[in-house]
Design brief:
alpha+beta
């Protein structure tokens, strides 16, 4: 029997699946070589296209009322086919919540009945709701899930409890569609015959508020969320969800996010797309996997704005972003609105799945930005209580997960103090924290005391850096491949042998190791251009092709990284549209190949998969230097002083650490020492990401049930930098000293009051200049204040004597650190006519401005 397809169904299929349809349906045109996904879809639709799907799936003002009028006047005979229509025994809908596929309400219908919509009527023939049918691909041929947006339901205040489902034949679905969407040109039939099946049980319930906290791990690249749901988390448990296994009581339940057809993930990419911003107060967004699918379908060239790394906006959430939607509308909105929309979606998804209203939210944060993140979430989520007291940072959450495992495996000595070093490498940043913990087995509970200290951070290194490095290498290899020359391989690009890479980095620096890579990458740009920002003044089709190149290259680098580090037995891989695996060779599966290269001055599209085989040893050598460099920065002082041997546990966390090369490089700093970072080699990226979430959930649940008492104390970190300015003579002045505790370091420098610009610079322990700052000093920034008030405005870091040394015509610039923030403040105080004036207070971060660090800006 011939099958017919619609575009929305085909666009989610892989290149191989589309080709297989052409073969199965004997579509001769589809046998042509080098056809891409778009061309295959067009061929299938040419011969096997089903008529437009008349599915009512969006809210239209007065649409339900028009259908009600249609039902009141045009309903004809009630047909008898109820034996062939199977519906759920019981349906429960929650106020303000959608009905989703994961609610697992199935119907089975014959072929002649419309598979677009089902209508909910009560005993008074009142149209209460419109459901959509979604094919259950794992069930029978005519089995569907019912779903609906809450805007398509009108159930408030209804008294009649006799509900039924109304079905129509395929021939009538167009009339229903046109009536709902007010198509005035459509001619209505004389009557609509229908099938009506009574519901045994139907309930419309208020969403209960739960005390159970929802935990969110908001990441640069990916985000996860979940909660421990016990049998008391709500009074009226959602029994249907429990019976179907979508909710498991007395266990951790993860928020699942749709990922293509019939697939769900515990992790959602942290990416946002602007679909419609015509109404600034009601912007339509897309998130996560939906954005990734849209990018692939449109060759990575969407008309609307796409935002990556929104976590990095924490220090600048009030800054406005220019957004563009699919229709070309432009608006300027605050960054915090975009962050809020993303978090709202995660929470909406959680409440839809778990059928409850959360009021307590725990969000794991980077250790040095804890205060900033908690402040941001309190501002953007005013209707929720953000857990602040003893809130876990990301590294400690991972550690706590390990501590509970140690307890339940009874692998600890009662009362003994353990020291742990936590290296958390995520998608965009890497943090180093140390921790001292002690476990005491008391009469009625375990006592865990945890003291943590932030040690160091690298804002510009994470998993994205590794993906980019692999992308550079692949671009070089592919450029050679398409030019039919094989001049350079990994050994020519990085000529060092084995551990000599480490020595060369120690002596020459990491940039020297990768200078050949960087140079050849620039040459490859002339063959496979990816820097789309340089093409903004070119024709739109050229710009689109270059933008496609970057995102496609990024995708294949990311997929190759996952494939090669998925198993230890796989040492070689090649790109293909089908999955296969032998003892040592596997395929890195992509839906299709779509690359644009320069050929004699013109751009030519390549849709044939290349014959390149990538060896795991090549990638290991490629990224080893980058990984060693981050450990060298973090651990050299620990190693040279012998402090590292005091640690009984070194914990690698974060999704990037799935690359087992991290383990190997770490051994350079702990020779002969067994470090407890072992993990299941099959552990995937999602599991490593979820270990942080698991730790937070287990911590909150243990505190709730009282079997473990946890006390977490965050020690004030030591500042590894010194702040400097210069006198008018050029002499250097040290304002803040290295090695002092954050919150205790303070200093000043004096200038004449005419000074408008104060240059400052930060040095690390090696006396290398790390960063430059500029404090702008304008007369209009000042206001007269009582000196006691001035000291209070300087957060009581200074004494009266510090003010007494300011003379008329002089300005003293005060700098000091804050124990809650990883940076310092500068405030100017001047004296004029024996009166004291205070200028603006400005905060400077010790680290790079992470809002400017992005691999997706078209400059790479």
């Amino acid at each position: 029997m011939k099958r017919y397809y619609i575009y929305d169904e085909l666009k989610r299929k892989s290149h191989y699946d589309l080709y297989k349809i052409c073969v199965d349906e004997k579509l001769v045109e589809g046998f042509q070589e080098n056809l891409n996904r778009t061309e295959l879809i067009n061929i299938i639709l040419k011969y096997r296209s089903r008529e437009k799907v008349y599915c009512i799936d969006s809210y239209k003002e007065f649409g339900i009322e028009r259908l009600q009028d249609l039902f009141d006047t045009k309903l004809g005979f009630r047909l008898n086919d109820s034996n062939n229509i199977k519906i759920p025994h019981k349906i429960v809908i929650y106020k303000g919540m959608p009905l989703i596929e994961e609610d697992d309400y199935r119907v089975a219908i014959p072929e002649h009945i419309s598979d677009n919509n089902v209508f909910l009527l009560n005993g008074n023939s009142y149209l209460c709701g419109i459901f959509q049918l979604v094919r259950d691909r794992k069930g029978g041929a005519n089995t569907f899930f019912i779903k609906s947006d809450e805007k398509l339901l009108r159930l408030d205040g209804l008294k009649n409890q006799n509900y039924s489902l109304l079905f129509f034949g395929r021939s009538d679905e167009k009339f229903l569609f046109n009536s709902y969407y007010a198509d005035e040109e459509s001619k209505l039939p004389m009557s609509l015959n229908y099938y009506q099946v009574p519901l045994d049980s139907f309930h419309f319930l208020d969403l209960e508020v739960t005390d159970t906290p929802l935990c969110i791990d908001f990441g640069t690249a990916n985000t996860t969320a979940g909660a421990y749901l016990d049998k008391y988390y709500v009074k009226n448990l959602p029994q249907h969800k429990i019976l179907s296994g979508h909710i498991q009581l007395d266990k951790t339940n993860y928020v699942k996010f749709p990922k293509g057809l019939d697939s769900y993930s515990n992790v959602i990419p942290t990416v946002v797309y602007i679909k419609n911003c015509f109404n600034e107060d009601n912007i339509e967004y897309a998130f996560g996997y939906e954005v990734e699918e849209l990018l692939k379908e449109n060759n990575y060239n969407l008309k609307g704005s796409v935002f990556y790394g929104i976590k990095n906006w924490v220090k600048s959430i009030d800054q406005k972003e220019r957004i563009v939607d699919e229709n070309g509308d432009i608006r300027y909105i605050e960054r915090k609105k975009i962050v809020k929309a993303y978090i709202d979606y995660v929470m909406y998804r959680a409440e839809s799945l778990f059928k409850c209203k959360f009021k307590n939210i725990h969000i794991t944060t980077p250790v040095k930005l804890k205060s900033e993140f908690l402040m941001m979430f309190k501002e953007i989520l005013p209707d929720y209580k953000i857990i602040e007291e003893n809130a876990l940072d990301e590294g400690v959450a991972v550690l706590y997960n390990s501590i509970e495992n140690i307890i339940y495996k009874n692998k600890f000595i009662d009362g003994e103090e353990y020291k742990a070093l936590i290296i958390d490498c995520g998608g965009g940043t890497t943090d180093l924290a140390s921790c001292v913990f002690k476990i005491n087995s008391e009469e009625i509970n375990y006592d865990i005391d945890i003291k943590t200290t932030f040690e160091n951070s690298e804002e510009s290194f994470g998993g994205n850096n590794i993906t980019y490095r692999i992308m550079q290498y692949l671009k070089i290899l592919l450029a050679q491949h398409y030019q039919n020359k094989k001049d350079l391989g990994i050994n020519e690009l990085i000529p060092n042998i084995g551990e000599l890479i480490y020595r060369d980095i120690d002596e020459k620096g990491v940039k020297e190791i990768y200078k050949n890579i960087e140079a050849e990458y620039e040459k490859a740009e002339k063959i496979i251009p990816t820097k789309f920002a340089d093409f903004e003044n070119r024709a739109s089709d050229v710009y689109s092709k270059v933008k496609n190149n970057f995102f496609f290259m990024w995708e294949i680098a990311e997929e190759l990284k996952k494939e090669l580090f998925r198993k230890t037995t796989i040492v070689r891989t090649k790109f293909d549209s089908v999955h296969y695996e032998s003892s040592d060779l596997s395929s890195t599966v992509l839906p299709s190949w779509n690359l644009n290269i320069y050929d004699n001055g013109f751009m030519r599209n390549i849709s044939t998969f290349p014959s390149l085989i990538i060896n795991k040893s090549e990638i290991i050598k490629l990224i080893k230097g980058d990984i060693y460099e981050i450990f060298r920065r973090f651990l050299t002082l620990y190693y040279e002083t012998g402090i590292i041997f005091d640690y009984s546990l070194i914990k690698l966390s974060g999704q990037t650490c799935k690359v087992n090369l991290f383990d190997e490089v770490l051994k350079e700093f702990v020779p002969g020492k067994m470090v407890d970072f072992r993990r299941n080699l099959e552990e995937d990226e999602q599991q490593l990401k979820i270990s942080c979430l698991d730790g937070a959930i287990r911590y909150l649940n243990s505190s709730k049930i009282g079997n473990i008492r946890v006390a977490v104390k965050n020690d004030i970190p030591i500042v590894p930098y010194s702040l400097h300015g210069t006198k008018y003579t050029g002499e250097e002045v040290e304002i803040l000293r290295t090695g002092e505790q954050a919150g205790a370091s303070a200093g000043s420098i004096k200038k004449i009051s005419a000074t408008e610009i104060l240059p400052l610079y930060l040095k690390n322990k090696e006396e290398e200049i790390k960063k430059h700052f500029t404090y702008i000093n304008k007369p209009e920034f000042y206001k007269e204040e009582d000196e006691q008030r001035v000291l209070e405005m300087l957060d009581n870091h200074f004494e009266q004597d510090d003010l007494d040394t300011i003379y008329n015509g002089e300005t003293k610039f005060f700098a000091y650190t804050d124990k809650n923030f990883w940076g310092f403040y500068v405030t100017a105080v001047k004296r004029e006519n024996n009166q004291t004036f205070i200028g603006k207070k400005q905060y400077f971060s010790f680290e790079e401005d992470i809002t400017t660090i992005s691999f997706f800006d078209g400059r790479h």
